[in-house]
Amino acid sequence: MKKIFFAILILYSCNSLNAQNDVKVMTIYANGGCIFRVQYDSIDSIIIAKQYMNSSNMEDYLSARALLPEKKLNGLFSVSPTKQVRFSSGNLQYNAYSDLWRFALNQYDIVGDSIYGNVYHSGKKCDNNEASSTYDGWIDLFASWTSGFDNTTEDSLAIRFHPWDRDTSVIKVGNLLHDDYYGYGCSYSDNIDVRFSFVDSVRNCKSKYANYDWGIYNSISNGGNKPGLWRTLATDEWHYLLYERKFKWNRVYAKIDKIFGLVLLPDDWTENDDIKNFSAQRFMNYLTPEEWLELENYGAVFLPCKSPDYGNYMSIDNLSIVEILPSMAVVIGLLFNDAVLPPYMLNSVRLVQDAE
User: Taking the domains of the chain in order of start, what are their residue ranges?
Assistant: First the structure.
């Protein structure tokens, strides 16, 4: 049984002017100590974030972090000829013990395993391999359609919907297409139209099946804290973003604070000599967190790899995954399958909002 935690949080904010921006400071105290301090120039654009982990109780920090203004990245990215999106401020993370969703506090944060990664909880390194219904740590790899949406009252076989589900065993359901069903999403019939009708419903946020999208179903503590504010890109949107945008140098590899990943540059990007150690025409850029912050302020997005060798990112229709292969000198890959990919494959999730 989860503990019920009550903490008295005292918020103090003040305004100070600098040469360019009206910079606000929010300091959050709990149990007699400062546990979080952030500076931001508007309610939706945090420009500098520093954590002060003086509280011994991590739940103080989690409670405080959820009270911060929503952070949005300012870069606009085309995902079709007529649609642009803004990316979330980091990969999606989940803590089962606290039943809490959040975006990574930095774009280059990745949970990884017991060795690789840079995310900690209560002084202990987080590990995706420890995922369970009681794990008191962060995970950031998910099987398909594991938003937590429980549809078993209507579809009793769709039992693997929890964020920690990773089971690869087959649930036999008569004469299914490919003779298998893994318990993720709806239990497909042998009618291929039914199979892809479900995928289309999720992908286009139609009917209740839209709740299989993490961003539609969940309140994300530092992403507005309400359901329905975010969504996951579909295959055709990833393809347009990576291959069809108008300028050549729209993506490049980088290593930030020991974490490899892919940098996506916004639609209005122009090469900027003011950013130290970065060039969109260089295959690999090695950046400090401070140098990355400069690039992020120009609207750049960083998709960190889940391991030193590769990274995979989810598409909501599960017809492809984005594969990042920095160690193999492959710029980018979008893996397709004639049928739906195995839903138990674990991938990173990066959410977006449609630009108004």
Answer: 9-65, 72-356
